[in-house]
Amino acid sequence: MNRKMLKKAALSVALGACLGALAPTVMAQSATGAIAGRANAGDQITITNTATGLTRTVTAGGDGSYRLSQLPVGDYSLTVKRDGQADKEPVAVNVSLGGTTNVNLGGTDTGPVTLDSVQVVGSRIINRVDVYSTESSFNINREELSRMPVAQDLSSVALLAPGVIGGNSSFGGISFGGSSVAENSVFINGLNVTDFYRRQSFSSAPFAFFQEFQVKTGGYSVEFGRSTGGVINAVTRSGSNEFKSGVEFTFEPAAWRSKADDHQFDRVDGDGKPATAIYKASHDTSSFMKANVWASGPLVKDKLFFFGMYEQRQGNYGNTNNAGTEWSRAKSDNGFWGAKLDWNITDDHRLELLAFSDEASTDRSTSQYDFNTRVIGDSMGTSVDDSGGKNGSLTYIGQFGENFTAKAMYGVNRSQALSASPADALCPQVLIDASYNAVYTAMGKPAVSCHPSGSTSVVNHHDERKVGRLDFEWALGDHLLRFGLDREEMTTDRTTHYPGPPGMRYSVFGTTPGSELDNGAVVPGGVNAIVMGRRRIDGGVFETTANAYYLEDAWSVTPNLVLNLGVRVDGFDNKTATGASFIKMDSLVSPRFGFSWDMKGDGSTKLSGNLGRYYLPVTNIINYNFAGGLIDERTFYALDGWRAATNPITGSGYMEPILGAQIGPVDDSYNLPVDDLRQSVSRDLDAVYQDEAILGFQQMINQAWSWGVNATYRRMPNAMDDIRINALCGVRHGTLWPIANPGDKLTLWGTKDMGCAQDGWVTIDTSKEGYMAGGSDKIMGYFKPKRTYKALEFQIDRAWDDKWAFNASYLWSKSEGNHEGPVNSDTNYGDTGMVQHWDHPANNQDYGPLFNDHRHQIKLRGSYKLNDMWSFGGTFTALSGGPITALGVAWPGDSTGAASFVTEGSGGGSFWHCVKNCSGPWDQREFEYAGRGWGGRMPWTYNLGANITWTLPVEGVDLKARLSVYNLLNEQEVINQRARYEKGPGVTRGLYGTGTRWQSPRYAQLVVTWNF
After folding, report:
1. Which pTM was predicted?
2. Quick one: which H or E segment has residue 607?
């Protein structure tokens, strides 16, 4: 073979080793990978896991293609036997999580070859361009992460990917491709550990417990479903034939953390009332340390392996409340344990057992505090929060012949959220609204409650998910058939209520005589402050089941063109506390089509695309609130001053509000009865889905550099939420809040008492009717839901060569519509699937930029090895600001408020501002329109991280110390602002547009690792 032919063959083997993070992958929620490629017909390809000795052999088919699937992540040695002659030089190959490493073998007169000058990790062939995949994702392992300043949590890994941003900081989470924070999924070794109650969190494990991570941003195969956002897929470490162990210490002392800025906004509302918002944070402290010890090795050489880890974590946190009048301490001292067993029964059959516990408990105490003198006063009480749970999975993988693979898994994922205080039975909570801050400040900001936990309810919450799934692969010539099924049973056992004898939480507001309250009453003359008492009680045991089956054909039409033709069918069944179905959706068909074209046949240039539909399940918070009954009542009182009281738990003094005369009736319109679900859920309910189209191109520049471009389009054409219905039969009646598809058909049980001609099922088109405006009695419907995401992504990548690596991406995107998804970040409302999007037709009138719309994203990351002792790493993110929306409270032609006249968080708001005759009759008000983004944009945010790693330069001793600094420039730019423009028709809120959240201050972390 001449030099040119050798170089081309070598390039085929290396497969564009420098396309790094650009490479999409396959096998969506698998904890394994694959090796595939082309050789000569009849060649015998053998791979051996260098760590465990696992060996598999396959014979190339008549067209020269071969595939070895369901391989544990790691390094392998590949050999080929051609015409009865064994190759003399094995090739080192790396199998990445969820990917297919393509190894094309040399001609008839040569064995496998590798390009020695491409050394990504030693001389291993690394999966960089997966020509068998049509998905969008990137992989990163623990070794790569150790070279960069990445915070030790799964979300921080995901944020490295283009199009992934932090969500609303009030309830956390991350947003993939314009989706809300409640649409993602997280898997550990194939076990779904996503919170199914709200879908905004997940079970966790220490960073040191993981081996590799896969971040999927779109184009998932049919193996995966139940997500319209993104996926974090992680695989844990495993044992090998070599006994290994190590310790790791992580330190984050308070002295290494910069102080947060204090913020105070003194404004005047449109009615002349002072409005003050205070955010005291400069005294907050945080220190954290953890230590883990791990060991791994063979229990039986080449057969049975173990990996085990124990980690002890200690955290001490102190912070003031926003007003600076209370000091809260939180202390956690918890241990994580985790274990992995791998049993190679034979080379063709193996078992994997995973078990870990992330149970944790945090003790909290609250005391009075003088911010100016830093003096901590009398104790206000204590509370305890418990979280986490035990998790485990058992997986069997079997190879039957050379062409058929089967996998079976059973797993359990548990979590809990418990919050309790000795004051729960005796002390109600009292909150001070910003509208009363001026008076409260003049009072000296005394403690106003004997309860220590702010706005937290008394919560007893347990979740358990049981998972069973079967997956199969069958290679038939040019076709790779993949099919399987899975079932999840998700049970929530939860009760909540407000503390105190009446089970009511009190909020104090400044007000103006003549102002209208949410219950329709008017504030009497002489009343300048009111108290709203809210009583909210719910609870029960609820189960949801999710079933799916799928079929996919990965068809190698030519040696360079792969088509993925697949279909997935989902079914969801949400049940009441008695076990009866109340939301059941079957036969949800998700077609998927993708292609991957290896344009030059050597893995250096690839064009790929994907079209697919993805369904989102209904969260268990819907079962909890709609199938178990909900008492949610608001009562308004005049504030008749304050009186001194004694804390019955601590004996310290505080001031409690004096409730005066009740103003108007109890507002029980938010109650959800359980006695008749026929008015709680529409019979025409359709599942929420998203359609997605992706087109990508990747190309090597040379053996070190590569670039790529990717275009994505997503659309979510429907929604599911609670929707206000007050005129089912065209006649005004009490408000119903059924779960329905706004802007679409709705069928509920109507009665004569509601004005219907007779008792029976009533079907209406909610785009035209269902809501009757106040005053005018005009019948109208809701605006059709719509959400779109368009993005164009550019990346350039320099592969690690044991000296340096670099990756840069720029993403332009536009997220538009009239609803964010199942949460509402504009008003900080995170009860998934039951937010205020459809509390009034005005809430979703405008189609425009949504909360997660950040037009420009720039992300850089790199690492550099100076010598065997010193190395450096860095990350940088620049993100343009999101839109600022200015929500009004009224709507032309309607006397009913489009949002609460009392609280900022209740009711979504309208896109109309009253500008004339606002205090007169509702039908004489004049308005101006203010669509989404009317208030402009929040500022750009920048985040720079850097680290330096010292390695002991002694052969045979693996000792490292890494110092990382996060937010090196200590940027504390605003990342969330108040979006409520009005507090009454024509009465502006002085605090509109002021900040509510800011970037976290700079902090440093030291990690010391010693492996032996």
Report:
1. 0.89
2. strand 605-616
